Amino acid sequence: DVKVTQSSRYLVKRTGEKVFLECVQDMDHENMFWYRQDPGLGLRLIYFSYDVKMKEKGDIPEGYSVSREKKERFSLILESASTNQTSMYLCASSLGETGSNIQYFGAGTRLSVL
Amino acid sequence: GEDVEQSLFLSVREGDSSVINCTYTDSSSTYLYWYKQEPGAGLQLLTYIFSNMDMKQDQRLTVLLNKKDKHLSLRIADTQTGDSAIYFCAEKEGGKLIFGQGTELSVKP
Questions:
Q1: In chain A, which residues have their Cβ closer than 8 Å to the Cβ of B102?
Q2: Does the pLDDT value for residue A106 go beyond 90?
Q3: Which residue of A87, A98, A106, B14 could cross-link A6, Cys pair, CB 3.0 to 4.6 Å?
Q4: B63/B90 Cα distance (integer angstroms)
Q5: Which residue in chain B has the smallest CA separation from A44?
Q6: Which residues of B touch A105 (CB under 8 A)?
Q7: What gap in Å lies between CA A5 and CA A85, rounded to an integer?
Q8: How far apart are CA B15 and CA B11, in angstroms?
Q9: Which of A105, A110, A111 to mutate to test the interface with B (most CBs of B within 10 A)?
Q10: Under an 8 A CB cutoff, do B42 and A90 touch?
Q11: Among residues of chain B, what percentage have pLDDT more than 70?
Q12: pLDDT (tens digit per residue) in B75-84
């Protein structure tokens, strides 16, 4: 079974802190994604990566950056956390662009910025 | 950009059928998906359908695809309290998925 692991289930940070959210997948997937989930808004794509050291902006990249130094690991960075970044963050991975392209999700990190 | 729309809430009684609806805009989508999210958890793939199919059945789940109206539905037969969750439909766009807002299904005993 594909496993996508997010390093923390819950995080509480203060405004202005630098925050790292880590995601690791164990199925040698090419693609990795970071979403945030807010009630009534569904999943919104922050950043994604189709390969090591490659990144693409999603729909809401402002205030975030990412790092993909190794194929299995995709990190989301909040350079200076703000209260409007309080949300549920979901990481996902998929094999490639062709075929069914099923995305597999981690359990999520619920971040509170105070 | 492409858009996927769902109603936000659905309430049914245990044992009834649930039908969750979704509309999408990209007529070239090759795959459409249904994901389930239980409270406090990530998303889990329930089923998906290729665009050349009209229907797909998997035990209690039936997916119907109307390409002309760009309408996708998920029917859950004999709905149980364990089916209470948020259900997301999604369409494939290149290497990405575009998700709807999610429909919260509440099953009352």
A1: 42-43
A2: yes
A3: A106
A4: 13
A5: B99
A6: 35, 42-44
A7: 21
A8: 12
A9: A105
A10: yes
A11: 98
A12: 999 999 999 9
Q: Please tell me the predicted confidence (pLDDT) of residue B86.
A: 96
Average pLDDT, stretch B22-51? 91
Using CA coordinates, name the residue in chain B closest to A34. B96
A92 neighbourhood in chain B, CB within 8 Å: 43
| Three-class secondary structure of residue A96 per DSSP | coil
> Residue A76 above 70 pLDDT?
yes
- Tell me the average pLDDT of chain B: 93
- The CA distance from A51 to the nearest CA of chain B, in Å, is 12
- The mean pLDDT of chain A is 94
> Who among A42, A50, A102 is closest to B88 (CB)?
A42
Phi, psi torsion values for A13, nearest 5 degrees? -130, 165
Residue in the structure block whose two tokens are 């999520």: A108
Given this model, what pLDDT does residue B2 score? 65
Does the distance separating the beta carbons of B45 and A104 come in below 8 Å? yes
CA distance A23 to chain B (A): 13
Contacts of range A80-83, beta carbons closer than 8 Å, 24 or more positions apart: A80/A16, A80/A17, A80/A18, A81/A13, A81/A14, A81/A15, A81/A16, A81/A17, A81/A18, A81/A19, A81/A111, A81/A113, A82/A15, A82/A113, A83/A15, A83/A113, A83/A114
Residue in the structure block whose two tokens are 């229907």: B55
